[in-house]
Amino acid sequence: MKTTVVSPANIAFIKYWGRSDHKLFLPRNNSISMTIDGCLTTTTAEILDDLDKDIVEVQYYGRKPVKIDSKSRKSKALFEQIARIRKDSKRKEKVKIESVNNFPSDAGIAASASSFSALTAALLVVYGQHEKFENKREFSRQVRLCGSGSAVRSCYGGFVEFALNIKKNDAYARQLSDENHWDLLDIVVVVDPGKKKYSSSHGHELADTSPYFETRISEMNKRIRETKKAIKNKDLEKLGTLIEQDSTSMHAIMMTSKPPIYYWNGASMKIMQEIIRWREEDNLLSYFTLDAGPNVHVICEAKDKNKIVRRLKRIEEVQFTIVNKPSEGTRIINKHLF
Ligand code: PMV
């Protein structure tokens, strides 16, 4: 049997950084994101009786397909997820997987979000656990167990919360509003499409070495509450202020961890300053947020798209932009990769 799924990336408005349990991958704080339509992973999986080991081939944006071995930290997580789902399914057969990303990976564009959610969905379906994919809360838990918290949020479309239930040792995604709720855009501004130097899994483990981490955590409940309200009321000024505060707060933790991690570069800083200037001088409402990489996500309403893209392209360091609308979450398609 062969199954193919498409899964989107998402942009975190309120970030997940730091865990309360590194084995169960429970986050320290809830996070909120928008699922985006232009950064997609397509994954085909097939169970083959005659395979003596799992085969995983990945094609990153602009590169040739490569076979993955289980040495690096992220691919270790990948092979562990295959083994876990196979065991849960009480099956023995090996699986062949091919995966394609249509955007630069590992550069703070949440490549792990789309790829781990796609992988988990394809595995659940191909190993006969379709009902765990259909039950989105359960699906999101299954995704969480591969270690990528951002991937948990890609299970749903639109605006999504990754919520922690500390009493029950549980965390899962829930949808706040669907993809038709608000014409927001996430314009990804690529200043460096290369692979990031420090993985986010490493960063999560360092987060509580920052002397400011507990201060960040103490602010989160209020920020989450206000963000939900701003999304519900489609209040961009309110939402944008919260988004920028949270991005900078997370990067402050990164930069003050021991050892520190610096994801921003000069171009990231220049774009942030330009965005603030456009708001102050021209009343052009857009807001910045950055994940674990130097590329900047610009959040604005669809009506301002052309003006903002034009201005971004005039900045020398900008290599290209990807305009994303809110999207539906992980889904099955009929066109297979092999
Ligand atoms: O999903 P992970 O474990 O790679 O962590 C993602 C962390 C950030 O992208 C920086 C923030 C977020 O909430 O997406």
General description of the model:
- This protein has 338 residues and is of the alpha+beta class.
- Helix content is 37%, strand content 27%.
- The chain has 10 helices and 14 strands.
- It has helices at 73-88, 111-126, 130-134, 136-144, 149-153, 200-206, 213-232, 236-255, 266-282, 305-313, and strands at residues 2-14, 19-21, 26-27, 31-48, 55-59, 66-67, 94-101, 159-165, 170-177, 184-190, 286-289, 296-301, 320-324, 331-333.
- The strands form 3 sheets. Strands 1, 4, 5, 6, 7, 8, 9 and 14 form an 8-stranded mixed sheet that branches. Strands 11-12-10-13 form a 4-stranded antiparallel sheet.
- Strand 8 (159-165) and strand 9 (170-177) form a beta hairpin.
- Helix 1 (73-88) packs parallel to helix 2, helix 2 (111-126) packs across helix 4 and helix 7 runs antiparallel to helix 8.
- It is globular, with a radius of gyration of 19 Å.
- The mean pLDDT is 94.
- The structure holds (3R)-3-hydroxy-3-methyl-5-(phosphonooxy)pentanoic acid (PMV).
- Residues 12, 15-17, 31, 110, 112, 148-151, 200-201, 291-292 line the site of (3R)-3-hydroxy-3-methyl-5-(phosphonooxy)pentanoic acid.
Question: Characteristics of this structure?
Answer:
alpha+beta, single chain, four-stranded antiparallel sheet, about 350 residues
Based on CA atoms alone, the radius of gyration comes out at 19 Å
- Alpha carbon gap, first and last residue: 12 Å
**How helical, in percent, are the residues?**
25-40%
The biggest beta sheet, please?
A: 8 strands, mixed
Number of strands: 14
Shape: globular
Percent strand: 25-35%
Q: H/E series, N to C?
A: EEEEEEHEHHHHEEEHHHHEEHEE
How many H/I helices? Answer: 10
Distinct bound molecules: (3R)-3-hydroxy-3-methyl-5-(phosphonooxy)pentanoic acid
